[in-house]
Predict the 3D structure of the following.
Amino acid sequence: MNLSSVRCIFLVVLVLGCVSAPPPTPESPAPATPTLTPAPGMNPEKAQNAPGIFYSHAVQDNFTIYVGLPSNYDPESSDQYHTLYLLDGDWYFDGSHWRMPDAGVKGIVRTLSYQGLIPESIVVGIGYPRENNRGRDFLRDYNDFYAFLKNELIPFIDENYNTDVTGRTLIGHSDGAFFTLHAFFQCGKPDNPFTNFIAVSGDFTKVNDVLFAEEMALYQRSRVVPASLYMAVGGQEEERFILSNRHMAEILGKRDYTDFRVIFKEYYGLNHGSIVSFAIQDGLLWIFSDD
């Protein structure tokens, strides 16, 4: 496996998903050829599924990265797989957190792909080894976080796994949905890395309504938006989530974008937490459908 010209540090640090070693400091020089090293006692053949520490030069901080591979994944095969990038991976990746039990998003993807409803996919979860900095990355310094995904993490994943680089999916909930919409509004710019977006329960009025300004900028920049956007909110959520989703969906529905698919679904009876697994599953089914 060729790992040359990778600008990151990616070391496996968790055994059984619960023990972490101190991450490298920003001052630590990046090795010329970073490696994905199995944790002590781990089967090397399963090392690619293990969490690891990834240092971002754009954000100047460490992230925990989780990689879930299809059950039939063969690194020596020429098969290429769709890639799903999941924000808040510590919570939603594999069912190990109370916020999303039952195998998490990785389990949803494997079940749907086994049933032939979506393609076999690689799931990449993004989390934090120590302090959770989602407010910084999704709301305050979202341009830096976007640069981390676009210029550092995605190239690393594409170089080291059998990925289909023609389309990727980004999934975010709550403030992660805010960032997902920000990433969507980068469509039309050079090297936009995502094609599909699932934004669940975002409050799009945050940061002085910047997302509505970004939507206007997108409309002025390009009427061709080759993307699919699934938006969802729970009917029992706070009013700010419901109203901002309705408003954004109304605006997007009136635009004359071409090559663009958008759907907004309001889940009556579900709240900010209970909606997550239902909306992500429905979003994946819709994205890979012909509707």
Summary: The radius of gyration is 18 Å.
